[in-house]
Amino acid sequence: MQFEGIYTPLVTPYHADFSLNEGALAATVEHLISAGVHGIIVAGTTGEYYAQSPEERVDMMGRCKDLIARRVPMIVGTGAIRTEDSILYARAAKEAGADALLIATPPYAYPTGREIALHALAVDRAANLPVMLYNYPGRMSVDMDEDCLDRLGRSPNFCAIKESSGDVNRLHMLARDYPHIALSCGMDDQALEFFAWGARSWVCAGSNFAPAAHIALYQACVVEGDFTKGRAIMSAMLPLMRVLERGGKFVQCIKYGLTLRGIDAGPPRKPLQPLNKDDKRELAEVIRTLDTAIAHITGHAK
Fold this sequence. Notes:
Helix content: 40-55%
Distance between the termini: 29 Å
Largest sheet: 8 strands, parallel, barrel
Number of domains: 1
Radius of gyration: 18 Å
Number of strands: 8
């Protein structure tokens, strides 16, 4: 599988009582596909999989596959502490008709590179689907190091890596030493650098509510090769990225951003709490400014 374009880690909209808002979920999927995103990720961190029961996660896979209806690829996250649970989610994803898996480092356990590789290989054997790896040491405390990548690179299913370390030296290492594992941007404020080093996809939560801006940057850098235009778009997006990453309110901001677009994504599940009035006001202003800037640069409305 070739991962190219904008891949949106889908939010899970909730009612005030934290039950699934089925209408908002359907509206979000339509909003993303109509906007032109290239793929949708179910059970990513932005989807709050960690706050869902196994039954809820499996239910979401089937619901989203029906809503997407093969119009774009569906990638399913298998994140879990136990390898046995990740295998369960991988098998359920295949049964639901997923096109690929997202495999992250098991959190909290602090595995070695070899142990991460053995985990990923076990999940791969259970489903035999294309895989995007997910390296996020900020949450998992460990990197998918060279030992891990060398072991996984022998399987053709491991065809991409979402790199979220923020370490530009790892970006260089991946681009230079592992060209057979396609780079996918997982660090939003480094998207321009990722595209310059050959990445052809971007997994970006902000595309839930600002798909036009994210698609515009991909289009400028990857499709058109116009990094002058890309720098202008990136400059316009940086204030939003700073707001999203500040103060540990990432999921809350993504959900409220979608609500500002007219789709009520509802509250985050506990232990997270909704944004306060000041946070909402700031996010709304940053989004308005971004919309204006992107429309000016591209000549199109959001």
